Amino acid sequence: MGIIRPLDEHLANQIAAGEVVERPASVLKELIENAVDAGASRIDVSAEEGGLQLLRVADNGGGIQPDDMLIAFQRHATSKISTDKDLFQIATLGFRGEALPSIAAVAKVKCVSATDDSGLGSLLEIEAGAVAANRETNAPKGTEMVVKEIFYNTPARLKYMKTIQTELGHLSDIVYRQALARPDIAFTFSHNGNVLLRTPGTGDLRQVVAAIYGTASAKAMIEVRDENPDYSISGLIAMPTETRANRNALTVLVNGRYVRSQAVMQPLLQAYHTLLPLHRYPLAVLDLRMHPTLVDVNVHPAKLEVRFSKEPELRAFVESAIKKALSTQTYIPSGAAVRTPKTNVWVQEQIRFQLPPAREEAEPAQAPLPEPPADASQRSREPEERQSGEVSVKETAAAYDWQTPPSPASGDGPRSTPVSTERNAPSAGPQAGSRYDRPQASQPQSRSSTVWPAATASADPIPSEVWKSAFAAPDVRPAVPEFPELGWVGQLHGTYIVAQNPNGLYLIDQHAAHERIHYEYYYDKFGRPEEASQELLLPVTLEFAPDECAVLRGRLAAFESAGVYMEDFGGNTFIIRAVPHWFPSGDEAAIVREMAEWIIEEKSVDLRVLREKAAIMCSCKASIKANQALTRESGEKLLERLAACKQPYTCPHGRPIVVSFSTYELEKMFKRVTS
Description:
Elements: H1 9-20, H2 24-37, E1 42-48, E2 54-59, H3 69-72, H4 99-106, E3 108-114, E4 120-127, E5 130-138, E6 142-148, H5 155-158, H6 164-181, E7 186-191, E8 194-198, H7 205-213, H8 215-219, E9 221-227, E10 231-238, E11 243-244, E12 250-254, E13 257-259, H9 262-271, E14 281-282, E15 284-290, E16 295-296, E17 307-308, H10 311-326, H11 393-399, E18 451-452, H12 464-471, E19 487-492, E20 496-501, E21 504-509, H13 510-526, E22 533-543, H14 546-553, H15 556-560, E23 565-568, E24 573-580, H16 588-601, E25 605-606, H17 607-622, H18 632-643, E26 658-662, H19 663-669
Parallel strand pairs: 1-7, 12-15
Antiparallel strand pairs: 1-2, 2-6, 3-4, 3-6, 4-5, 7-8, 9-10, 10-15, 11-14, 12-13, 16-17, 18-25, 19-20, 20-21, 21-26, 22-24, 23-24
Helix pairs in contact: 1-4, 2-6, 9-10, 13-17, 13-18, 16-17
């Protein structure tokens, strides 16, 4: 007699339940999706003891026909698909046939459903996969599913359940995602009799966000809306000032279905790059719509993962749409939280202080600014870190000896009144006596970037011409709102610039501002590697581990794309022959080593990311530090250069550059107004 035999149906259902029913939240997800597919406009969810004791989902949808009650709990039974073609055009949330029979195999299930308002419906009770009751009963239109004692007959699964609070957290997450996916459905969620969520079902997504994350978070979100022939996107994303410590507040919907997709999550986070601090994440709800043939939702038992047929195009579309939305906002956080003033406000008589127009009395006499070096090779090398008091007024003024930039294309120019100055001819970079060549606005082009796979010691090197052409691809970034015109007031602790305008007081982090200026300068320069390199008078050597050398030998062309010419010098040593002439003085070796470490760690080298990483490395090392005194002239020039940046509100690491205190906030602090 053979040893292969078909499994018992109940045992097969328990095995299938292991794929679909991981915990009570898995059951809740399936039941809510069935209610949504039934056309419900109201869904009530209640749970007890984290859902382990009871889960109840009631809706006012179309209900289940009496003849279909038993069939619905059979394996692979569904009303959503009938042919193999339907698998590639899934337009509903539920379509897999394992859900209801799998739930009934590991719990006690009661289903009450009616298809009309006659008051008559059907009742079906199943315990351990066997029918316990099947009869007519009184019921309103819709369906009520009650699931009790999950895993009561599979103790091995039950012992792996977490605490009640942990399971409640998973239940809440499911309800929140479904409510965000369908703001037109009124959701109510309660646990042990306590109502945890109630949404109005008006179709307003912002109201649902307010119910889940709070009114303040909802007000800090902006709308995203864009489309192309293949995709459309809508939803809400948070301002960069509204951040979270993890990604739990990111909700991605594909045709109304909540999914976990890196193909959407990565471009979403990339759009916020340099706008958020390290390890901080935005709050976002994005709904992507596309033809069902462009997405495969049948790749995960719980339908949480999907596969896209045109993923590169989708990534570019998502990133572009979010950047467009973010470009319409001004990112200057308020320094004080004060309520909006009422209509009738009593204001005391005020004395307004104005800065004297003449500079002779406002600041001490300064030494004349030094002449810029005739050649970039004559630049003096200075230490990276400077201590407080080591930098003289003369040196600082020289470091900001910039000329007013040429007038760029309309709509992309400096956003503050230029300071009238006369300077000498510029040198190669933003160091002493240099001129910051701001990149001109360019026509939108494809944002796709070249990515090279990991190289081995025996791999053929990639031609440098290929690297350079991809590395120099223009970066198209939408313009941000105008930076406010600011007037110099002074400097605080050698670290913050104090400025003002008719709207109030502003504090500017001078290091962060200088980083942003340098970042945009270097980012533009790295896009033109053919103009970059100059040979070093004394070549620099770097040593790496043997396994790292094997990778670097196959990726030397990546360095050439950035204007760095490095050769294999034998053994574990590489020699740097040339670097861009605008590299920060004295930091050439450190920057090349950081670039090498990043190239070694990456499985594949994205040239656009390398360009950005290199620009950030240079900007951080070249920028002024804290506790460094500025003259009024150099401070005004810094504000002017900051206003001319494409994104003057955050540094390359995502930290805010400017914090504002409105005039009303200041008057409120000093009790000059009452609200």
